[in-house]
Specification:
The protein has about 210 residues and is α/β, with parallel strands linked by helices. Helices cover about 50% and strands about 10% of the residues. The mean pLDDT is about 85.
Length: about 210
């Protein structure tokens, strides 16, 4: 692989965020996509935090979780760049993907929705970070997978799941980063995501491009 300046690589890094309500296959999709594109994915900081500190969280805990998520994301940006530079050649270059990739499970939109849904308010730090942090593509996981119980999940009923999904959809509709709805079974979700990523990169060198 031709040596590339580290700053150039970091500027070229594409960050793809997988978001949506709980139990919609976000972590599974991140895992599959990272394997497919020979890269890394940044996990959800909140899971380990709540497993360690308990599920009786407070409004103040969400600020701690948000900061922890951002720190983890920054760490994974560096890891993804190191991983990319170690590859003898970028395996997906022929598919038109010639930039390092990082998949991210959860970012500040998730913290905003979580905080407002549970506490009716959100820390200004979180909203500030929404404006400051830039991402390249959102994949919004729909709620048409069966809800699977685990020790951290809170909303098994259909009504709050629909409400939360619509909140996410409204947020993405009213911002400028491209996004795609991901629905169906796990195979369909993976295929839709791969197609969206392929189309995203195909659009990079075009003045006008729409596939959403």
């Amino acid at each position: 692989m031709q040596q590339v300046n580290s700053l150039t690589l970091q500027n070229n890094l594409k960050k793809i965020v997988i978001i949506g309500p709980e139990s919609t296959g976000k972590s599974t999709l991140c895992t599959l996509l990272a394997q497919h594109y020979n890269t890394l994915w940044c996990p959800e900081f909140a899971r380990e935090y709540l497993l360690s500190h308990g599920t009786n969280y407070t409004f103040e805990d969400l600020l701690t979780i948000a900061k922890g998520q951002l720190t983890l994301e920054d760490e994974y940006v560096e890891k993804a760049l190191v991983h990319y530079k170690k590859q003898p050649q970028y395996i997906h270059h022929t598919a038109g993907i010639n930039s390092p990739l990082l998949f991210i499970d959860t970012e500040m939109y998730v913290m905003k929705v979580w905080s407002e849904f549970v506490f009716g308010k959100v820390e200004p730090f979180i909203t500030d970070q929404i404006h400051e942090r830039k991402y390249d593509l959102y994949l919004l996981c729909n709620i048409d997978l069966p809800w699977v119980k685990d020790e951290l999940r809170e909303y098994p009923d259909e009504a709050p799941r629909i409400e939360l999904y619509n909140i996410y959809k409204n947020l993405l509709t009213n911002q400028t980063t491209p996004w795609v709805d991901i629905s169906g079974d796990y195979e369909n979700r993976f295929n839709t995501a791969v197609k969206a990523i392929h189309n995203f990169f195909a659009c990079q060198n075009k003045a006008k491009c729409s596939f959403f």
